[in-house]
Amino acid sequence: MSEEPIAYAEIILHWVVGLGIIGVVAIGIYMTQMENFALYGLHKSLGILLFTVIVIRVVIRLRKGWPENVSTGAAWERGLARVIQWVLLIATIAMPLSGMFDAYGAGRGLNVFGVNLVAPNIDDTGLRAVVSEALSSFGEAVHGIGANILIAAILLHVAGALKHHLFDRDTPLRRMVRRGTMS
Ligand code: HEM
Description:
Distance between the termini: 22 Å
Bound molecules: protoporphyrin IX containing FE
Shape: elongated
Number of strands: 4
Strand order of the largest sheet: 1-4
Number of domains: 1
CATH topology: Fumarate Reductase Cytochrome B subunit
Strand content: 5-15%
CATH architecture: Up-down Bundle
Largest sheet: 2 strands, parallel
Order of helices and strands: EHHHEEHHE
């Protein structure tokens, strides 16, 4: 099957977002499991920064559509891969957004490496006050459920890419590590 090269910018965005998400997920799981509250700021700052790159990537994907399917797999396999790609796209938006809803709603504000994007909500007594309990609870619930869906989708996505590369010996993974166009 002839293979249309993917633009360099899209390849770079794919790996920045992919590896960035894996890093933020790893910190998220570690800090909650180990109750390491010192890492919360790092997790949130990286998540917010990554969100800006994710938005660029999602806009490009929605405008250009998906790259040509070069898999030699069965129709159901290609369909499943596409469903997982959609789940990843939606989850990469939903996770940082829900994290921000949670933090903002709880009155913690939004902060990137010490720079306040939204200041914490401090009341007259000098204590942090909730902005919206509903927004915070909604964000927390989506963040928790979304984390599991995102992790399952990442594992299936990576397993599929490795299967193609190692067993089917076709091009989807190779195409994401070399050969690009400048457009
Ligand atoms: C790419 C973006 C993000 C990903 C993939 C991500 C992923 C995760 C994961 C896997 C966890 C552990 C599971 C859980 O307990 O919920 C977690 C926890 C958490 N995340 Fe994120 N996160 C992202 C962005 C953010 C942002 C932008 C914020 C806030 C500004 C945030 C705030 C939190 C908080 C407060 C927790 C702890 C929840 C708890 O203690 O119950 N996250 N995140």
